[in-house]
Amino acid sequence: xxxxxxxxxxxMEIQKEIARKxxxxxxDKGLTQEELARRAGLSLSSLxxxxxxxxxxxxxxxxxxxxxxxxxxxxxxFAPQEYQTMKELLDAKRRKG
Length: 97
Known about the structure:
The protein is mainly α. Helix content is about 65%, strand content about 0%.
């Protein structure tokens, strides 16, 4: 039997958490859904669906991130892993080598 707990969050949970954070950031910046959608070049219904379900195209998500000043988060998405110990670093080098 597979233990799902060892895998962390499931993709849908990650999507919903990103949508929750976007909504919080939008509100912190004093933007309405209508304003953010307009500035990001999205339909209002697309933004509303995203905030409710977490579903959106990647290109649209990047545009939203740009409006909310989060471009760096996308650039860091698949950044090289930082190692906590010398053993982790050496093990990674052995796997690549």
